[in-house]
Amino acid sequence: QVAVLFIDLDRFKLINDTLGHHIGDGLLRSVARRLSQTVRTDDTVCRLGGDEFVVIMRHVAGREELDITINQRLIPALRQTTVVEGNSLNVSCSVGVALFPMDATEQSELMRLADAAMYEAKSAGRDTSRFFSLETNNRVMARQLMETQLRQALENQEFSLHYQPRIHAKTRQMQGAEALLRWHNPVLGQVPPGQFIQLAEETGLIKGIGLWVLREACRQWMAFQQQGLFQGLELSVNLSGAQLADVDLLDQIRQVLIETQMPAKHLELELTESHLMDNPTAAQEKLSALKRLGVNIAIDDFGTGYSSLAYLKRFEIDKLKVDQSFVLGMLEDSADAAIVHAVIALGHTLGLSVVAEGVESWPMAQALIALGVDELQGYWFSRPLAVPDFVQWVKGQPEGTERRRAR
Ligand code: C2E
Ligand code: CA
Ligand code: CA
Prior knowledge:
Distance between the termini: 77 Å
Strand order of the largest sheet: 8-9-11-12-13-14-15-16
Strand content: 15-25%
Radius of gyration: 25 Å
Structural class: alpha/beta
Largest sheet: 8 strands, mixed, barrel
Shape: elongated
Helix content: 40-55%
Bound molecules: ligand C2E, calcium ion
């Protein structure tokens, strides 16, 4: 049997970006040396490009032996600290394995399967290996099918937006609503955003989709206003990391605001903490430019992405949204409750307002109100609703919201 190992370094880009390419090059040389040392002399080690390496092992006795070689020798060898020009570097790698002739007999097919298995190793948390399996294949096929469908989804008008109200904690009135994307595909049925947003990011399709969301949400919001509904209420739209990195973003937002006549001060853009921390210096500049357009900025899923507090102070933001995992757990888990408490205090100290999402019960809402949260969002108040249901929901609210409507 012959084994094809697809090896990809974990977070190599970070080293290149922070320490420079010459340090990255030094690291790649050291990885190449270590790989050569861990395999036998008649095996082949090559670099495909970037931080991707391929190892071809001949005369493989079986999976067990191979598993030991990879997990007890190869992966640990790459994990060792490397010193490049005085910098101590630590990397790990993710390895995907395909076997000849069991998995495939064609060279290109073996590479494709090993690559797919590597992708699974990455998804499993990196610094590990995966053998190609039938499940891997099924997942790859499912992903390909979804990608094909996603490429046509905009054109075929398969997207729609649902709206979920955000409630002011003191007045209990609707303060605004978040637009959430829904995809109905004739082949795949209803696909939740948790399943396709990441794929849209990886394929770059999110730029087109994200622009559609922004335009459609602003257009709809203005249509509500023209019907005398929700005067002065805020609209929240999610932005993905790829959108934030896109050089066209500012122009696109400016254009949409002009086109739809949406007042910038009523638009709030939600960015996740991890997207901002991917490249905090660039994010800081982008956020300032967005603020100059007059829109508001919220950090979404706060508490999950290891924000540097120094950046939090420098970022021009208006709001923190406590990640729903902490909110959902706060009544049972004292650690979650402590985190929610700390985020609210931190936000207020920095002059930011704090929203809790994932509020599923009245006791939860009460606990959050007691902690001084500014806004509440969650199933207890309303699920995200399609436009007609959302309008119905707003009309059914007690007179506070009605008053707002009439104004
Ligand atoms: P998110 O921005 O954190 O949105 C909140 C999610 O929590 C929504 O899931 C919402 O339906 C759900 N949710 C709201 N209240 C509750 C509750 O009380 N309990 C529980 N368990 N869940 C609640 P949804 O709509 O499935 O969206 C998932 C994620 O997909 C969003 O998380 C957001 O990251 C992403 N997403 C959705 N629409 C867009 C979009 O237009 N653009 C981008 N870039 N991402 C989007
Ligand atoms: Ca959000
Ligand atoms: Ca969130």
